[in-house]
Model the fold of this input.
Amino acid sequence: MTVETRMAQSPDTRVGSREMTYVEAGRAGLDEEMARDSSIFVVGQGIGERGGNFNTTLGLYEKYGPARLRDVPITERGFVGMCTGAAATGSRPVVDFMFIDFILDALGELINQTSKLRYMTHGRVKVPIVLRGCFGLGGAAATHHSGSYYPFFAHLPGFVVALPSTPADAKGLLKMAIRTDDPVIFLEHKGLLNSRGTVSDDPDLLIPFGVASVRRHLAGHGKRLTVVAISGMVSKVLAAADRLAAEGIDVEVIDPRTIAPLDIGTIIESVRRTGRLLIVDEDYAPCGIGAEVAAQVVSDAFDYLDAPIKRLNANFTHVPYSPPLEAQVAISISQIDDAIRQAVHG
Amino acid sequence: METGSIVEWLKRPGEFVRQGEQLLIIQSDKAANEIEALESGYLDIPPDSPAIGVEVPIGTVLGALLTEAEALARGLPIVLADAHAPKAAPRATAPKLVPSVTEAGLVAASAMTRLPGAERDDVSLYREMVRIRKVEEALARSHQQGLVHGACHTYVGEEAIATAVCAHLTIKDTVWSTHRGHGHALAKGVTARELAAELFGRETGCAGGRGGSMHLFKPEVGLMGTSGIVGPCILLATGAGYTSSLLRDGRVSVAFFGDGASNNGAFHEGLNLAAVWNLPVIFVCENNQYATEVPYATVSKQPDVARKADGYGMPGVVVDGNDVRAVWEAARVAVERAREGHGPTLIEAKTYRTRAHSEGMRDAGYRSVDEIDYWKSRCPIRHLRAQLAAEGVVAVATLDAIDHEIEEEARDAIAFATASGWPDASTAADHVVGWKAGELVGGEVR
Done:
């Protein structure tokens, strides 16, 4: 049976909204989709009765039962391959890795099977699967629980890579990810999980892939700069932009929301007005999303640039445990301020 | 007319009957009448339906036409298309499937459709084995002529396994295979033409020329893929089983893999998951004794792969992979078990490939000519042929006629592939993803 439902990019005005955390918003989106489509199931460690290490599925087991909230053994390759086969035959799995570092055990399956089946079957098999997990620095999570890895997936054909930075986007992008007939890597920065924001209760509100959000527009006075900020860096860059307005710096902040597909058009349009670009990304610089954005901007908007493109990334090293060591690796507030000043004045 | 008796059912239990199709013949005191179906549905003939020839009064219920859900709830072995049904139009029964590539493909699939639990049909088994053999030999010759561009891993010597296992499957059941998958593809319903064209890299191939020997796909008949990577098919079949279990759609899935995969982590992870969740999966290990050129005996202390099943809490069965009847029986039990909700089975079919790992590769230095000759003498086709001749049930002339027919089919397949066009080069980047940036999707609830 097929039922048509509404899809929307702007909320139904008759439906209310609520303040909630990032995790609650993602969970609300998952709950709405699971209620809507009985072919959706979630796998992960402790996502059943326990509700997920990060509360991603809290309360859902009671509603949907063990077949749809399936606790799995610690066999990432196994359950990613299993979910790929399930997706190819008519169900819609959501794999909850808890920490995205664990996805690495499943790379062979993801790259050779999950991302390639649609292509290899000449479009006759679809693989609707969501691969979600928390990433990023912070909390002394140490070397095996602090990775990012998203440029891997953006490098390969066949994946969507979504990096929501607000509760509303966490809900809207997760719902979109679940409804899409292709693999989606859905990454939640650990530092965002308890952040709060207003989220619509509209069950049909979706956020499309490849549409950036301009989080801060130019004020119209001062030295102009475009900053592209990824995931957890968005709120930090917004705070820095507010601080630096007093120094006569006018920053436009762009959150790509998905890096595959990448909304380069919105970035280029902004650079045409500002002439300067900084990319702030907690992941490593070499071959990262900043390099990709810079290459595309140079290719398509070189004549509009008034200064070299700058990048600010975390230290190119493994992530240590001890808080002062970890802080040394991460991007600090003062580094963001300095990078913005250098991009404008340098 | 006050009484009547059934002369013949023209449809079988589980078969999809369209409105207006002839359903059965009833003999009354005046005449034999063909009775047509007043509505479409899956045929159910309950146990208390009168037997053929038994006279019963008018108004006696003979059977019912059910919806798919009702049929599955009743445990009916649903068959979408069936070659034996005189008026079943395969195309018309296809709407629940992904649209077909070619009508010929679906016809071939229906020819391989069997009712689970049906009687063994030795002539069909013989035909299918000969079909795989002769098509493989034709492909090997084509490879020598440079018409097959990349790798070509033949299934020669192992034909009994795919043939016997797929004889128990419908086109809704799924098969996940290996790099040595031509036999699985043919047995599951890929036509010889589509197979040859795929290896030739032509647009008429079963993957539109995107795959070649190692990447054969025809989801319309449940051939979900052969693979260039050893092991994943075990996990993918397990996932297909999860879907069947979640959606209760009555399908089973089969993973074919070699002894090489049995030492891979995917084997452990997949069998464990399938067993613990009781999934309808049949794991078929074709132990041909060499992983590429590495002897199994040198990489596993346990000589029987099937014994490993015990570690996962599922039945493991060792069977002579060169005896099609033995494999058929083992597969019958395993498929029945899976369909009835009793979970997965591991079947180890001991066998041997009598050609090189891949066509054109040096086939020496790791096995002896004597060993190859011994296994050639155990050819599964010759074995069945000898059995049938000795039993006298099937005339040798019948088997000879099949051989000739299949030779013609193989010749036709190569001619078709040769005559087929190349894929349009501008389509090389088609079907990477289904989304467009900025587009909303998912208006339908499935």
User: Anything to note?
Assistant: The first helix of chain B runs from residue 68 to 73. The two ends of chain B are 48 Å apart (CA to CA). The longest strand of chain B covers residues 3-9.
